[in-house]
Amino acid sequence: MRNRPTRLKSVVGYCLLGLGALALLAGCATASSPGASPSPTGSSGASATIAGTWLVDPSENLQTEPFLTIVDDGSWVASDGCNVVRGTWELSADGTLTTTAGPSTLIGCDGKPLPFLFSNATSASVDGDTLVLQDPAGETITLVAGQEPRKQIATTTPTPST
User: Fold this and answer.
1) Torsion from C-alpha of 14, 18, 21, 26, nearest 10 degrees
2) Cα–Cα–Cα angle for 138, 142, 85, rounded to 5 degrees
3) Sequence-ordered list of residues with C-beta below 8 angstroms from that of 99, at least 6 positions apart, any chain
4) pLDDT, tens digit, for every residue of 133-142?
5) Residues 153 and 118: beta-carbon distance below 8 Å
6) Is 69:82 a contact under the CB 8 Å cutoff?
7) For 40-96, what is each residue's pLDDT tens digit?
């Protein structure tokens, strides 16, 4: 029975050590106002100008629905109509764009490769309701403002033929 008080002291000691570590971590946290969304690191007011959902011009008549959604918290998600990629972005005051991209599936697709185009763009700007991206070679792509497409589910059930 002598071991029991020693074990109790050890458990209490570990708990106190854990609480001390939490207190240290809490001291490192930064304060922000409630409900405020963080802005991308190193970006200026220009960051809010590219935030939104951007689509391929409907006149391109693609069989898929590619989209690019840029969130003002520094994240983005895009699809070529088959594959989805997520990442982060940062826009400097001079329009220089820096992005990261996560993994993607590699499903063959006839859509426009918006995840690739955005993650490789070096600058971005908005002209009215048009997002203009430029790659390192100086090639530009334009996207139009829109809403992220949702696949429609058939509401009718086919009747079997007799």
Assistant:
1) -160
2) 90
3) 76, 87, 88, 89, 90, 118, 119, 120, 121
4) 999 999 999 9
5) no
6) no
7) 333 334 444 899 999 999 888 888 899 999 999 999 999 999 999 999 999 999 999
Contact 68, 76 (CB under 8 A): yes
CB distance 74 to 89 below 8 Å: yes
From residue 40, how far is each of 20, 72, 135 by CA, in Å? 31, 7, 21
Nearest CA among 96, 100, 103 for reference residue 133: 96
H or E segment to which residue 78 belongs? strand 75-79
Give the three-state DSSP class for 47: helix
What does the chain come to in residues? 162
**CA 11 to each of CA 1, 6, 25: distance values in angstroms, whole numbers, following the listed order:** 16, 9, 21
How distant, in Å, are the alpha carbons of 2, 64, 78, 110 from that of 72?
60, 26, 15, 29
pTM of the shown model: 0.62
